[in-house]
Each structure stands twice: as C-alpha cells, then as structure tokens.
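Record passed on here:
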Amino acid sequence: MATLEKDTKQPPVYLPFKTLETAIVTLEQGFPDKLDKSVWGSLSGGVQSQVVSAFRFLKLIDAENNVQPVLKTLVKAKGEERYRILREVLEVAYPDIVTLAGNNASLQTLNDTMRTKGIKGATLVRGIRFYLHAAKIVGLPLSPYWDTGGKPANVGTKTRRRGKAQRPQSSGSEQMSPKKKGEPDGATQTIKLRSGGHLALNIEANLFTLSQEDRTFIFGLIDQLMDYEKKKVAQN
C-alpha cells in the first residue's frame, strides 16, 4: 500500500460516511487520473465539493486532484478488504484521534481536538459524527466516553434561541436553562429567493438519534440550500 501523509491544510471530512462510500463505488466504473466534481454528477454541487475536500484530506487525491495509488487500490478492493484499507487511510488522516481513543479520552477532548483542525459549529458536529460512524464500520477503537448506547452525546455546540426572553434567575443574571435529556436540537436557515420572497428550513430534531435515511435526507436539503445561496451570490 502506498505511503500516506497527513495534510493539515485540508479540513477533516464532514459528510456522511455513506456518501463517502457512494463516492468510492461510483469510481468502480473507471475514473480519470485527475478527478473533479463532475465525476459525481448525481450529487448536488455542495456535496460534490465536500467529496473532493474529503478525498484530499484522506490523501486519496493530491492538492491538484490527481488520483493517488491508494485510491485505485481502495476502489478495486471489495467487502472487508475495502474496509481494511479505509481503516489504514483513517489511521493516517486522524493519528491524534486514534491516540485519544486509545487513552479513553472524554468527548470534550475529542471536540477540542477536532476544533483545532479548522472546523466549528454544525461542521464540527458533522465531522465528529463522520469519524465515529467510520470508526465503527472499519473497526477502529473508540473511547467508551464517545458513545452512549449508540447515541453520541452533545459535543459542545450551542444553539442561540431568538424571539423568547429568558426568565431572570433569583441572582438577577440571565441564564439559559440546561437542556433536558432527549430534548431535540433546533436550527433554522432562511434564504432569499431570486424572484422574491424567502424560504426557511427549520429543523427540530436530535441529529444524533436520527436514522441514516433521515440524516441523509436532512443534510441533502441543507446542501441544496447552501448551493442555491452560493450560486445566487456568484450571479450577483
């Protein structure tokens, strides 16, 4: 297997593991020496960009999108052999996270370490979720504190609530009530339509407890909104 090197200039992977698998399977029909977003024409523009970014971070392609030998080996492999190669790829891409797992690090330590890689907010949550899912699939060790009954705990992101005044505490300071167990997360994204009007997407769900199908559907919608907004900005 070709020697891999960690690329600190690329953000870590933050797309669903299933999408990465789909991107790899697509290449089974053959691929050019240099990849670009058009190879994955069935995906939205935003997801295509995430796939290219993920391939770079995992050193499957270089900075100029040239295919690396390990990608060809990965595409040719099948079943457990493919997962074995993916495990090696992840070990090289995330050496610090693998070490944390071996030391039984806390979820907050995982969160802080991932943040140093240049991601935050929703992208941080997605990046951690990708690693946890990928590690389970390929057989990488995980800290026992990173997963509780198959439902990863909150990783420190905060959601700002608007429209409702906070009830003052007896001390006179305003504090947000602690989140109750099982309470869904919330997020709203609003975009302005080119022909006038607005479109709002409001998510009220705990993303960590959703099924793979629901997560894929939700993030597909989010990617479409982001892609629409980017195209609108480019046209202006």
Summary: The chain has eight helices and two strands. Residues 1-8, 157-185 have pLDDT under 50 and may be disordered.
